[in-house]
Amino acid sequence: VSTQSTGSIAAISMFGGVYAVLPAYESDLFGTKYVGANHGKMLLFSSTAALAGPTTFLYLRGLSEKAAITDLLSKIDPAVFKEKFGSDVSAVDALIEAKTVTVAKLMEIAPPGVMDPTPFLYDTSFYSIAAAISIGAVAHAMIRPVDPKWYEKVQK
Fold first, then answer.
1. Is the pTM of this model over 0.85?
2. Residues 96 and 66: beta-carbon distance below 8 Å
3. CA–CA distance, 100 with 92 (Å, rounded to integer)
């Protein structure tokens, strides 16, 4: 079994464990009366995060790639660009969309000494995700059980 599949199995198992104990955790924090409604909200926002997280991650990576290509284009001679891609630099957006122009292909025609931005394309994405996780960890640490004085009184 490869390390990658072992890691995936471990992550999936941990998610299963978290979702298995989540209702008990919620009832400890917020009481048992509305645990069903609270759990539904937790699952809703968990699903929302599962969809929004990767979308945001890829969007931020795309912005970094676009910025890297723009930076590389400022360092490349337009005549060399036209010879390589058969089009002016003004048509670069269409060439990027068609995946004709990529960072790797621009690095082939970049002048010597131009640093390859490829290792840094995910920096913005990872820093943003790390910030979001940190905010979530702080918010989670601030959660306290509901004070019993706010519990509903039992009518006899």
1. no
2. yes
3. 9
How would residue 1 be classed by pLDDT, with cut points 50, 70 and 90? low
Nearest CA to 96 out of 73, 114, 117, 78 is that of: 73
Query: What does the alpha-carbon distance between residue 91 and residue 107 come to, in Å, rounded to a whole number?
Result: 18
Residue 31 contacts residue 146 (beta carbons within 8 Å): yes
The answer to whether the beta carbons of residues 60 and 124 sit under 8 Å apart is yes
Tell me which residue of 85, 62, 96 sits closest to 76, measured CA to CA.
Answer: 85
Closest CA to 42 of 60, 58, 30, 55: 30
Q: What angle do CA 142, 36, 44 make, to 5 degrees?
A: 70
d(CA 48, CA 43): 8
- Whether the CB-CB separation of 103 and 75 falls below 8 Å is answered with no
- Give the pLDDT score at 146: 81
Give me the helices (H) in the chain, please. 3-30, 35-75, 78-85, 92-97, 103-109, 123-141
In this structure, what token pair is assigned to residue 3? 């390390």
For range 99-112, the mean pLDDT = 95
For 48-94, how does the pLDDT look when each residue is reduced to its tens digit (9 = 90+)?
998 999 999 999 999 999 999 999 999 999 999 999 999 999 999 99
